[in-house]
Amino acid sequence: MKQYYIILALIFPILIQAQTDLSVSPSKNGEDNYVYVKNELLFVNGAIDLKKNNSKETEASIYLREDAQLLQGLDTKNQGDGYLSVFQEGTANSFDYNYWGMPVETKGKTLDQVLFEPVNSTRSNPVRLTNGLDGSASPLTISTRWIYKLSGVGYKSWDPIGKQINKLQPGMGFTMKGTKGINTVTVNGVQNNPGSHQRYDFRGIPNNGDIKVQVNENNTVLLGNPYPSPIDLKAFLSDPDNDITGIAYFWDSKENGNSHYVKDYEGGYGAYSPGANDYVPATFKKYRNQTGEQIENSGGALGKEYERRYAPVGQGFTVVGTKNGGRVTFRNSYRVDERGIDLKARTKGSNGNNGNNKNSSVIIDEEKSNSVRLNISLNDTYTRQLLVAFRDDATKGADKAMDAPMFGKLSSDASWNIDGGEYMINVLPFDRSSMLPLNVLTSSEMEVDFFIAETDFLDNENIYLYDSENDRFTDIKKDHYKVQVTGDSKDRFFLAFQDDQPTEEEKVQETKEEEIFVASIDIFQNNNEGVLQVKIPKDVEVNHIAIFNLNGGAVISKNLSTSDKEFSFTTANFRDAIYIVQLNTSDNRSVTKKITVKN
């Protein structure tokens, strides 16, 4: 009789906490042994040794199903010829890319020795491979034409690896297109491919411990979560020992693509900043065929907003290096117990929670900074969204793992201007008096539309777009600001939190001060003596007086000594009428008063 180690859904996770290894192998009489984990955390402190079972039905040694995941404590190397099996979902469209990471070892293996098609809860068949353009859902067939890794500068740095997944060192990511058609096989209540997602079974010795990847200065490298558990990207990107900008970029594309030609792609990269603990979606653009050069987009598309802090099993993402000979290290300490989260709602491509996400609930990360999302629409064809987040421990300059440099700039585009650089995400302390400069560049004259897309910032804070060329503040929480722009407008537009107009409170205060000032100056028409008498307070300096008739003609206009505080002017020769007296002070204030002359 076969021996089964079944871990059912319990209230508490199952923990195997021993310095010794976890070993799973067939029994002495050849019967299969395996560990089946459903909706639970399997924690092993030491190394794992797996021996392949004899039956195809239960060939794997550890099965992680639904929200199950494996965490390990020590930096040890797992071993054996057995398998850990973990489900994951990707795109169901044969034209769309998945950005993957391998949760199992690939040394000496081809793709069809690592990826499998689920048949039931324990059995899977190796995927089929094709050199054709399209993959297929049934039987699960993968096109090797679209499998690439990335490390370098520019479009030519994409390196095809095809089925030779052994060329992929642990921690490196890879691209792979999805499948067409449907697959009606249902496992654990979820269909392999109902037309909206494709399920895969990753099988192999689970990766564990420190995993190092070289990332040279200014190089773009596609990485992937290397573990059979989610990782906390915030912890990984913020690690000062990792020689990267501290920003993760995610590919996103127009849904339901229908072409393999580069010129027909519409997609782009969104950015996750651990400092903001938030994500700004991709601006979609088209690409020139072969060269990969980005050009303008005519679809007006903006990528979706995703929760990005926790990278699920198999998630791929892109980083940029900051040091020659630099590297990044994945560590067990980044691995987290994130069961019960709908990873499908968080990510595109490699984005399921072990292939059973329909009954899970989305858990939103609450550790976010106060932020503002500014949308800038260019020529009503596409939109660049910029994010500003406020943290007291940030600086106004460029900070690692906070401010996100532009990734995939267009010929007509917009960005934050930080120390002359171009950024998608700006993280800084809040200062109501500050004005945040924007870069706006247009390849030709076009309409640019500024508006607030979303803010969780204080409701009573104003948000303005200041146009220095027109000396105009616009409340873009309430209204759009649309203006024609040509060329480079680096010093023209600013996001501001107060305008140059006084508040109602300031207006009331100014009115009171003005009333006190006017009342302090005594202007008296003494008709008995035919004299206009003026008395000035000691702290006021009057340098000019004028008397006008109602037709606007000046009957008196005289410069005065600012040291004199009393003046008198004869009005005996004035016609009986109403006149306007105007006094101007040395600090550019003016006082006017009507007088009636009767001689």
Commentary on this structure:
- By secondary structure, the protein is mainly beta.
- It folds into three domains: about 5-205, no CATH class; about 370-500; about 510-595, Immunoglobulin-like (Sandwich).
- It is about 5% helix and about 40% strand.
- Strand 30 (about 285) and strand 31 form a beta hairpin.
- It is elongated, with a radius of gyration of 35 Å.
Strand line-up in the sheet with most strands: 1-4-7-10-23-12-13
List the domain count as a whole number: 3
Number of strands: 51
Shape: elongated
How would you briefly describe this protein structure?
With 599 residues, the chain is mainly beta. The chain is built from 2 helices and 51 strands.
Topology:
Blueprint: E1 5-7, E2 14-16, E3 22-24, E4 35-38, E5 41-44, E6 48-50, E7 62-65, E8 69-72, E9 79-80, E10 84-90, E11 97-101, E12 115-118, E13 124-126, E14 128-130, E15 135-136, E16 141-143, E17 148-152, E18 158-160, E19 173-177, E20 179-180, E21 183-187, E22 190-193, E23 198-204, E24 211-214, E25 220-224, E26 231-232, H1 233-238, E27 248-253, E28 266-273, E29 278-280, E30 285-287, E31 294-295, E32 310-311, E33 316-320, E34 327-330, E35 370-378, E36 382-390, E37 404-405, E38 413-418, E39 421-428, E40 435-455, E41 464-467, E42 472-475, E43 481-488, E44 493-496, H2 504-520, E45 522-526, E46 531-535, E47 542-549, E48 554-559, E49 566-570, E50 577-585, E51 590-597
Parallel strand pairs: 1-4, 2-5, 3-6, 4-7, 5-8, 6-9, 7-10, 14-16, 15-20, 36-39
Antiparallel strand pairs: 10-23, 11-19, 12-13, 12-23, 17-18, 17-25, 21-22, 24-34, 25-33, 26-32, 27-28, 28-29, 28-30, 30-31, 35-36, 35-40, 37-39, 38-39, 38-40, 40-43, 40-44, 41-42, 41-44, 45-46, 46-49, 47-48, 47-50, 50-51
